[in-house]
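Input structure tokens:
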């Protein structure tokens, strides 16, 4: 499978070489006209931001940074090697908190944030987004014996949610509009928010469903948890995040992603990483 994947990737990248960028009048290798591309070419380095958010980006038990979006960004790195004529492009994976993403991009600490970034109008004044690669639903995660099924069941109670996330922005809006009187407790990471809920410091966790499943599955008793059928707020569109006012690099990333999404490679990646569900260890049924 690995050899087949590599072969298909090679064919894909060879094909990409002959597709012109919509925003470039000449090959990238001739004279890059973007801050990001110039930085990558001059340093022979691509700095990728990520967070510990399975199944999209995370460092596994062997210390390897992997996941669905990491695979996408590795393909982008391969295309950069070809298009910029860089034989040895070093790829550095840099852990970045939700709240650090914009400053990390604008200070050139990272060139591309390859973790979970929800497209939000309020962020588009500060950063650029790629075409979206996934659409998630925000749901309530809680202990099953608390019998929490809807937001109304949480009225006046404490809720955990990561700060700096679109989930927090959406939850604040819903809290105001529905007069739920929620006590929203924020955390630096999703892991911290999940721990607040498991330690019963909050009644529940509000989180995108696909991000909740790995935390539940890695717990000692996944059957103790439930993910609500009720969807909270609007759908969450995920995209890669880039510096603002660098349209050539955005076009390059979008072009590369578009080719990947249209190829058989993406189906393989989706099947490997994005078919998440709650696997119950001590029962005969599976919760979705």
């Amino acid at each position: 499978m690995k050899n087949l994947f590599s072969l298909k990737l090679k064919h894909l990248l060879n094909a990409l070489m002959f597709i012109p960028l919509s925003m470039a009048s000449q090959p990238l290798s001739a004279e890059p006209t973007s801050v990001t591309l110039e930085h990558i070419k001059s340093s022979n380095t691509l700095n990728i931001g990520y967070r510990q958010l399975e199944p999209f980006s995370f460092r596994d038990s062997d210390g390897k940074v992997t996941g669905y979006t990491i695979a996408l960004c590795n393909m982008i790195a391969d295309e950069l090697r070809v298009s910029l004529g860089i034989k040895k492009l070093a790829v550095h994976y840099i852990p970045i908190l939700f709240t650090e993403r914009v400053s990390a991009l604008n200070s050139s600490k990272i060139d591309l944030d390859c973790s979970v970034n929800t497209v939000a109008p309020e962020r588009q004044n500060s950063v650029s987004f790629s075409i979206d690669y996934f659409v998630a639903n925000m749901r309530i995660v809680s202990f099953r014996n608390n019998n929490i099924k809807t937001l109304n069941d949480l009225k006046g109670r404490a809720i955990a949610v990561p700060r700096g996330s679109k989930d927090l922005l959406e939850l604040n809006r819903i809290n105001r509009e529905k007069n739920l009187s929620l006590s929203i407790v924020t955390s630096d990471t999703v892991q911290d928010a999940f721990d607040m809920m498991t330690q019963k410091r909050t009644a529940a966790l509000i989180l995108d469903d696909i991000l909740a499943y790995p935390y539940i599955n890695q717990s000692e008793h996944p059957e103790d948890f439930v993910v609500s059928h009720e969807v909270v707020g609007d759908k969450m569109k995920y995209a890669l995040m880039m510096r603002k006012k660098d349209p050539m690099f955005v076009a390059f990333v979008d072009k590369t992603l578009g080719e990947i999404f249209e190829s058989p490679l993406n189906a393989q990646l989706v099947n490997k990483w994005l078919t998440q569900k709650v696997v119950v260890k001590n029962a005969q049924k599976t919760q979705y």
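The first strand starts at residue 45 and ends at 50. Confidence is low (pLDDT under 50) at residues 1-27, 282-288.
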